[in-house]
Design brief:
Helix content of chain B: under 10%
Distance between the termini of chain A: 40 Å
Number of helices of chain B: 0
Radius of gyration of chain B: 13 Å
Number of strands of chain B: 10
Structural class of chain A: mainly beta
Order of helices and strands of chain A: EEEEEEEEEEE
Largest sheet of chain B: 6 strands, mixed
Radius of gyration of chain A: 13 Å
Helix content of chain A: under 10%
Number of helices of chain A: 0
Number of strands of chain A: 11
Strand content of chain B: over 45%
Strand content of chain A: over 45%
Oligomer: heterodimer
Shape of chain A: globular
Order of helices and strands of chain B: EEEEEEEEEE
Shape of chain B: globular
Distance between the termini of chain B: 34 Å
Structural class of chain B: mainly beta
Largest interface: A-B, 20 and 24 residues
């Protein structure tokens, strides 16, 4: 059974750097074909893909956020970390991580999400 | 590239509803389309992947299709149940970027 869980700060100030961790079980990022995506959702708004990292360390980012995002993995801890620099109140929302077996394809298992508020 | 969905649709229990997802550029059949259901306060879950395939556990009342002539994907739900009330998002990718539609709120009344 695949599970994922996001963790990190619930409140962060503008201009700071946000670091979120996705801790997962039921799969390994050393297995060929496996990846983890990050997606966010502002309150009451649509889903927005942020990026992914795959087993072979292939990393892709949303073009609109590429300059601010970094995704890394720690295979020994079964964790993926998302870093977002220079946050703004518009970055407020629920952040999800999700498992995928296909680059740019279906995200078949999602974490519960973690709400991050950017406010001074 | 963008995927356009109606903001909301409503239908009665037992009826059939179709939610369109229109691509504004490129061909809708260039890459697979997924559909996700999101109930309030919950994470999304897949109801259709690779245009028309259903994950195990999703009832066959959920049907996905592609219409090249309108450059759209569609999610059709038949025999509507109150538990189908949720937000639905289509998803595909274009030029190394994953794209979600704006979401459609389905009300079953």
């Amino acid at each position: 059974q695949i599970t994922l869980k996001e963790s990190g700060p619930t409140l962060i100030k503008p201009t700071q750097t946000l670091t979120l961790t996705c801790t997962f079980s039921g799969f390994s990022l050393t297995t060929s074909g496996v990846g983890v995506n990050w997606i966010r959702q502002p309150p009451g708004k649509a889903l927005e893909w942020l990026g992914f990292i795959f087993w072979d360390d292939d990393k892709r980012y949303s073009p609109s956020l590429r300059d601010r995002l970094t995704i890394t993995k720690d295979t020994s801890k079964n964790q993926v970390v998302l870093t977002m620099t220079n946050v703004d109140p518009v970055d407020t929302g629920t952040y999800f991580c999700a498992h995928s077996d296909v680059r740019f394809g279906e995200m078949d298992n999602w974490g519960q999400g973690t709400l991050v508020t950017v406010s001074s | 590239s963008m995927l356009t969905q109606p903001h909301s649709v409503s239908e009665s229990p037992g009826k059939t509803v179709t939610i369109p997802c229109t691509a504004n550029s490129g061909s809708i059949d260039s890459n697979f389309v997924q559909w996700y259901q999101q109930r309030p306060g919950s994470a999304p879950r897949t109801v259709i992947f690779e245009d028309s395939r259903r994950p195990s556990g999703v009832p066959d009342r959920f049907f996905g299709s592609i219409d090249i002539s309108s450059n759209s994907a569609s999610l059709t739900i038949s025999g509507l149940e109150t538990e189908d009330e949720a937000d639905y998002y289509c998803q595909t990718y274009d030029r190394n970027n994953v794209i979600f539609g704006g979401g459609t709120k389905l009300t079953v009344i």
